[in-house]
Fold each of these.
Amino acid sequence: MTETLPAPAGVPAEYRNIGRRVPKFDAVHKTTGHLKFVGDIQLPRMLEIKILRSPHPHARIRRIDTSKAVAIPGVKAIITHEDAPSHPYGREFALPPEYMPRDNFVIPDKARYVGDVVAAVAATTPDVAARAVAAIEVEYEKLPASLDPFAAIASGAPRIHDTVAWGEEVDHLDGNVLRTVSMGVGDVEQGFADADVVIENTFTVPKQQQSPMERRCIVVDPLPDGRLEVWCTTQSIHGLRHNLARALGIPYSRINVHQTFLGGAFGARLDMNVDEPIAALLALKSGLPVRLQLTREEDMMSTSRHPATVRLKTGAKRDGTLVAHEMEAHVDTGAYACSGEWVTKCMGGWFMSMYRVAHQRFTGHVIYTNTPPAAGFRGFGNPQANVPVESHMDLLADRLGIDPVEIRLRNYIREGDAYYAQGPNVVDYIKSCGVEQILTSGAKRIGWDRRAGFAGQGDRKIRKGIGLGRAFHTSGCGQANEVSDILEYAGSVVKINEDGTANLTTALIDMGTGNLMGHAQIVAEVLGLRAEDVLVSSTDTDSSPYDVVTHASRSTYVSGMVAKLAAEKVRDRLTELAGRILDADPGDIVLGGGRATVRGTGGAADASVSIEEIARTAQMRQWGTIMAEASERAVTTASHFTCKFVEVSVDTETGHVTVDRVVAGSDVGQVINPVLVEGQIHGGAAQAFGYALLEEIQVDRETGRTLNPDYLNYKIFTSRDACRDFDVFFADTYEDSGPFGAKGIGESANNDGASAIVNAVANAIGVHIKDLPLTPEKVLRALGKL
Amino acid sequence: MTETLPAPAGVPAEYRNIGRRVPKFDAVHKTTGHLKFVGDIQLPRMLEIKILRSPHPHARIRRIDTSKAVAIPGVKAIITHEDAPSHPYGREFALPPEYMPRDNFVIPDKARYVGDVVAAVAATTPDVAARAVAAIEVEYEKLPASLDPFAAIASGAPRIHDTVAWGEEVDHLDGNVLRTVSMGVGDVEQGFADADVVIENTFTVPKQQQSPMERRCIVVDPLPDGRLEVWCTTQSIHGLRHNLARALGIPYSRINVHQTFLGGAFGARLDMNVDEPIAALLALKSGLPVRLQLTREEDMMSTSRHPATVRLKTGAKRDGTLVAHEMEAHVDTGAYACSGEWVTKCMGGWFMSMYRVAHQRFTGHVIYTNTPPAAGFRGFGNPQANVPVESHMDLLADRLGIDPVEIRLRNYIREGDAYYAQGPNVVDYIKSCGVEQILTSGAKRIGWDRRAGFAGQGDRKIRKGIGLGRAFHTSGCGQANEVSDILEYAGSVVKINEDGTANLTTALIDMGTGNLMGHAQIVAEVLGLRAEDVLVSSTDTDSSPYDVVTHASRSTYVSGMVAKLAAEKVRDRLTELAGRILDADPGDIVLGGGRATVRGTGGAADASVSIEEIARTAQMRQWGTIMAEASERAVTTASHFTCKFVEVSVDTETGHVTVDRVVAGSDVGQVINPVLVEGQIHGGAAQAFGYALLEEIQVDRETGRTLNPDYLNYKIFTSRDACRDFDVFFADTYEDSGPFGAKGIGESANNDGASAIVNAVANAIGVHIKDLPLTPEKVLRALGKL
């Protein structure tokens, strides 16, 4: 149960960084309003962009007339599909171009959902741009639309895409299935035949919005030599540079993307969206800096979690041993590919990696519909699989009369077991596992033995329930094979300043999680400095080594590992120089407490030199800047495990569910900074509870219009809904493959929460609701009151 | 006579970079007005600073009352000596703190020249700040002033500084001599005794202004965590960071200085001035961003070349062989140390390194006066020594009846000879020398044989003259000993982009000379790329390795060498990866024409891979970013040599001198980019001609007021004065210690010009004027017409 680690003997406490509760270095900049987000950037003569969007879910652009719009004073540039590059581009940052699905056009000649881009205007003010948008005349040829994944795969359904390019190859599609993902082990039919009990259910999980506070914003400054300076709400500056260059058909180095902090992202900025190439093209066309800041409505319609319908069949022996597991998912990717295949692959991987089951099969259909496109979202297919699986564990436990904690303890995968890291191609093995710890300790903390008593509370108005959700996730996308369909490498530069402090440069994006603060702690730990003495520099794609993207719970595990490697190179240089100064063998020198000290000398004055003194001597004697770069790929992932025990109250009159208590147990290996990990766990839980109870982007099945793209009508789980009785604890594990024993957390914090709520409500009301979110209406219906 | 080199066989011409006439990459940004200088920076709520300056040349501040000023709406912060740190600080960037003279205070309690800082105000607008400055009430105790160096060293002269700190040691001064620099070889008295002829003269050289177009400007943004973001017209971002931190008494890493292009500098931005700490202190006090942009008058009074009175005594044999040389200089450093000692040391070094003389002595007195402070200026003591020495060479030639070219050819130092690189401590040896080439070829090009005919032109109104000046300079401040009183190291980072282009990051400042373009060519040459494929990234002190400062004709020789080292590390990585791709030994692979090719295969398709393909494969296979850093000190300097032959017309009625023709011969080793070197030679000549003919900051010897701190009254040598008949040529030398054979040029371009003019005017009018500048008044006086 790791908390802040004590400092080792002889080292002042503030020099012990791993496990220390250090506030984020950017917190003061954010709270004072000093930190500049993309939306704060003002450039002289900057134009504002507005977009003309399709009112139809499926329509070909017959004719488009911008002549009236162009004539409006202040309008500087307009683009339509006629001005835009005609090649399709791909959005995903983590896939090499060779494997990336490409079905987007900078401006398409056919609208595929209500809101798809038809034209874009850059003008001196947003109002002028909006007036110009209104003045564009479009003649649409309305086409029949597929607004539902099952309608979309029915025979004769209107075709949304004829082709999709995958790298340089082109797929000609038969219908609206982008890809079907299949994976499995054993013989599922035989497994079910061998089972003593088989249950099968169909679950639906909703189209949740990522809901970052910051709206998508892009600023592009065109330089006179044709290069573009770009600031963008993006999870990857290098990924954006590459995809934007390919969308525009220009060399990568013509674009320089600047690193900024994000006001949240949760996957909504995981890939390039359609707005970045539009802004860049308008900058090139107008020759002036431009800004495109989406409205809240536009932003909410631009990304979402992939909604899915999931059929799950589970077979078990009487003692609870799982023997067969089969999942079939219909995943709605919306009008464009948008990570749909990769999310579905991962969904299969997460499904197959939760429990030891000899016979498993996963089939995932990735389906185009004429609805707003989905995107990556914290968990990346995991909650979609977790809710059915964890529901089934409870249902099976009930059926077999086994305690739900116990049935999980019998079946969970553990040290040495194989798992699927990111879909069918990537197998890895569990190296550290604290599942037993977190399950048993969590059960005690929540008072699990009260659960049985909650079954059958009769007609009480408020019914209590306790539920458990458990999740498996991986840290990053590493794999043993260097030729991978997912990129997973990072780079860092560490430099010692002449005052003995250090600078760290990494292209990694901090979405608000504090991952860069964690990096500073890792570097400080290697160098024997205080975390506050490691300054994280701002950078851009011109200056920084490649870092793939902030995603997949990889920041600490992958990028942090590479920052550690760079710091170790600097450490070696420091000990070498300390050896020169102290006339000692560098191999005998250790760093700690801000000093380099010859081992075994007890810190005698002539056997110890401060880092500052080394740096100043290096300057004085012109030994050069103490600086190193590391750039490495991850060859492993690290599976991390979480569970959430929740206690809820269900108001049987209103159908409203209140979360009363949360116990969150996490095996994240060594905790680098408890403040930050706790932040992830609190935030992840809120997002999961919203998924379970409230949140769903609703698309009208007749018109294709999004009904609630705003926070008046789309209800998120807010601080008013959040539960203050929230107990966070950690397993006492250490992951050898991670930096200082650390694993990931960002997504796991989210994966298990919805399952816990669904199971707790079932405990309270005796009905297992399978259609998320569990709105009051659905709860009342389950109670037979509607 | 190197011009553009032909491309080697088999490599497309654009891939051969060294010697190629490539336009500066920043030219288009400057000419389109897109490039941002410091003065273009606008920050929200930024305050403007105005400074209250002393009207007295020497006065103690008895009392200062800011109460009325503070009460003016819009005034946000005022500082006086009462608010400022009480420790003295040093200005120089290239000296380690341990050796730096420290006699400046952020705001002194005693004004030492008319214009010295008394208080500073930050307010919402410049007008408000100016009104507040006017409202500050000061009671001065006027002190007697020393307005002339000889007055200042007379007994009983008023004392300007009581103490000067040198690093941590404090000198208690007896009078107004900061330091006396002495150096010598042999036995000068014996040398003069052995001489057949001895001449002795006293020369005065003026207080020239550097005259960059851009005025000094500092923007400081205080961050909520106490750090300062700084943009400044400075020749060294790292030097400024260090000196500013020390002036404020805060750790270096609390300051981040951003790299910008300069609109000229010429040494005026070589050191920190007094304005940077004032701006930083006002930013810290107000908590708001501030800007301090000097007025033209303030800027012109803030720096100048050190004026000097130089007595020179030269002894020679009848055949012209020099046997004894003695120089004594009284150098006026103004009210503060301001590089005065180092300039004087260098002056001695340049003096002693021009000609082979067995017995030499240099004595330089660095004297404080109550006049505006001097500063580093292109040549750094060289023109002050060059004018007397080159005048004497002509005078001696005349006396002995030897041709001036011939007497120089007999005596110049050459390959293998020792020289003093930067004052008495640094001896180096000449490795390449093209003096004979440039002197003999230059004489032919100018038509030297006409010179004799110009002697005695009788009473013609316009008299023609030809003159020669020759100069010696060093490239950078390197030395064999790592413990040096001058820092001379640099760092560079080179990175390959995934499209096969490269990025170069260096903290080096481009003052407008194109030194960064030269770096791009060097990196391109190493990597076999085109210069336009090497992008120079903008950086800051947080992110970049240390680079000491743009000075001392070091950019190409020192920083360029380090950029080459970084590029070579990247080259080695590229050949390693190409070896993997081509299944070949990396040692057999050569880069060129944008490709890596196995030697001896004639570029067969399976034996060659483009850099872009290597980079893309490295991404696809996750081999990491191809990137390397180098940081090294220079252990040698490289002496470079120039000469200028000029032909002038002297109007004997007006005294006006016109430059009719220039022949500039330079031994700069291998020319990296002729366009850039020619630019240096043209600009350096104009600055030298202004020094010889026009330019002098005049300080009233009664009041201490500067009489002409503006371009109406201070006449610089403009494009109207410049000579279009300008013949530039280069010696065919190659310096083994330099990158691709290159040496420096920046200062040499300036050092020889004034001497050439003085000698040409003497040829024309038969009188050798020894008091620069040769204004019409002095010419007429020499002609006996005044």
Note: Residues 425-480+635-786 of chain B form a domain with the Aldehyde Oxidoreductase; domain 4 fold (CATH 3.30.365.10).
Amino acid sequence: MTPEIIETLRKEIGGDKVHTSDEVLDARRFDYSVPAHLRDWRGEELARPGVVVRPESTAEVQSVLRVAGETRTPVVPYGLGSGVCGGILSDPSVILVDLSRMNRIREIDETNLLASFDAGKQGLEAEEAVAALGLTIGHWPQSIAVSTVGGWVSTRASGQFSTAYGNIEDIIYSIEAVLPNGDIVQLGKAPRAAAGPDLRHLLMGAEGTMGIITGVTFALRRKPEERAYSAYYTPSLSAGFEAQRTIIQSDWRPPVMRQYDAAETGRNFRDFTAESVQDRGLLLMVHEGPSSRVEVELEAVDGIAKRFGLEEAPKGIVPHWMENRNHVPTWQQLFEGGLIADTIEISASWTKIEAIYDEAITSLREIDAVIAASAHSSHVYRTGINLYFTFVARHDDSADMEATYLECWRRVMQATARHGGGIAHHHGAGRLRKSYLVHDLGETGLSLLRTIHRAIDPQGLMNPGNLIPDA
Amino acid sequence: MTPEIIETLRKEIGGDKVHTSDEVLDARRFDYSVPAHLRDWRGEELARPGVVVRPESTAEVQSVLRVAGETRTPVVPYGLGSGVCGGILSDPSVILVDLSRMNRIREIDETNLLASFDAGKQGLEAEEAVAALGLTIGHWPQSIAVSTVGGWVSTRASGQFSTAYGNIEDIIYSIEAVLPNGDIVQLGKAPRAAAGPDLRHLLMGAEGTMGIITGVTFALRRKPEERAYSAYYTPSLSAGFEAQRTIIQSDWRPPVMRQYDAAETGRNFRDFTAESVQDRGLLLMVHEGPSSRVEVELEAVDGIAKRFGLEEAPKGIVPHWMENRNHVPTWQQLFEGGLIADTIEISASWTKIEAIYDEAITSLREIDAVIAASAHSSHVYRTGINLYFTFVARHDDSADMEATYLECWRRVMQATARHGGGIAHHHGAGRLRKSYLVHDLGETGLSLLRTIHRAIDPQGLMNPGNLIPDA
């Protein structure tokens, strides 16, 4: 990063938006991925960006990308840094574009159920803005209070209510972005279009490699008339999957349907697991919609659950989950206790999911340092389901942690790939999954991704090193 | 087309799959678009492809694309030729790749609700194959018996039951395609993925410009337990839209919701329109799902309809529509009666749709030759709705027909663009809408589309002249 580039940036967007202080640079070295946090906690010096810019408008983002293009300077887009796959990793050569000052509500349209925000708007603020009008975005990632609406789109995020309300690709209406060549595009104009390929999908999931998302418009929902809960103990994972498959394939759609294996049930719902149900799993559901529909759904779901041998659990479990669902310990707290942990989400067809579960859990437990390996499902589809693995390993010497951590990842990715699952359900790929992408896309699919990327970002300046594996 | 190319094709895929007879070439000169049919009917000589190949496997398509690439020969993919936007227009320089012999059922998976077909499988045959197992693709385009499953994907089609079951992008699970470089890609591996940009969207809607789709896998549904109908006379288009908006925004989802303006109601439902309701429109709905849900939906929808002043119409109207929904006169029959007609579908937000309707209908009727201009809506979204315009013009001299026809298109496109609608709901763009695409994508979006296309098809061999406007 030359002083000339920094000077040019100051001229283009104003000195108050161009930062080189230790504090600002240090805070934006990496995202919320475990390996970077571990190294940082162990006292390793992690690289900082060469400069941080905090644009306040799309035009300023455009200016920054033009400067970057003219000076061949790499660019790393940054929202609130809550990504968990290593999508952000700084380097003194890069301009880090912090979008968090682009945080305006652009428009909320109560008739057409559309809400437009600057990409840097914090998720919960966006949700609260529409909630004040009796509306909802319907997207509830665990990170909602620490992620941006642009980040949701950039990483192809899912929310906890996805089973009825869809993932971000089902909620997005239009995307404004600045491309590496400085062009501003506005993609998505109508409720639905057959006007060539849907180019929004080039940016959704690109994790900063194709340009910078500067604005998003969501298709909202009205707040449901009714919310109800149901909860069942599952005699086995199989029985729980069969119940879930039958529910969704009968065209019932509880927005939340989560099955916890016995290990997670015991750990997360201690107060609700009497002796008699200690080896059981748990299936939690939230039902929403018009009251009369919720009522018939509850009845139908109850019949299906019982058909598969599930037993009613105390309803209080679901409000307990609702209240605590976004509380997680920090990585630091774990490191200090001698622990390293992470979650890894994948998805697969109904007939493949159990084999993946079995192999992943067994192979995780074979690692000496691993003290816990468990999973729950949190997103349900007609064609299959996701699994969200959690592993915890203990090491007296933190120097051993990273190798164990990466080996846990390798084993889950391998179990998923071997049985034909998809290696990334919703956290994105970043650097952590990059080398496993080939299992989803194949060599020719990767080559297509590289071709597209090279065409859009011929200088290779957009978040280099992230997402796209080298040929 | 040199004899050498034809000879090479014969060597590569077998002489029985390479056709140069008048009959075969003549039958594949154009699709079901009006202008080509008009010219043909008037006795103009329309260009034929240089050669027609009818591959029977993905490997054979790959061979053809390799020959095309090596000899710089343009390629036109062809399903069953039912497209209505001019996506197919032959030329003696092109290899036309007729996919209709690639018509196998690859696999039907009743547990995971997946069905895979060769891309050339006729739509109704595909639906019947899964229907035999109590399943449905849920995609019912009017063309179902004359289109291929690959064509649905290639044109981003919608079906009549889309309001609950989604458009083709919601039904597709994975796409197999051969790219212009000869690579076979298999895109879409899991129920859902956050593994980089969703590359299936490069092929969906590309209308043959990015490669040839050779196989598709759909996410199926189980056949609904119950089907019920409801029908209402609408006092005005506004009242009908408000009722539809309220139904969908209350999270009720009848798979079919169609509103006909008064003109179409009179024309299409003559037997059901007594004197007393002659100025009314009609709202038809099909309700499907578990019986108990259908029951509460019917009740809720009835309440909403009455709140907006709609009056119950005879239920027999909906079965009448169900039976006759895919019957349309041929273009030739119309030409012979001195008429030229077409349908044009667009979509827009709720607050924009009436202005588009008013301007389009008024400006169509201002054309002297136009004897009928009307519309219905057939696809409903939380954020808006589509309109499906129909116009009919009369000319004693068929030489005047084409100019009138194109002027009708221009006026509907202009009304849509002026009020901020999307210019193509589901028939695709082809050559008819190509010059209007800029209204949806903007100049920078078009430039992005060209960039992507050039990267994937650097020699410009894939269906040249279709879809993508020149810079």
Note: Chain B has a mean pLDDT of 97.
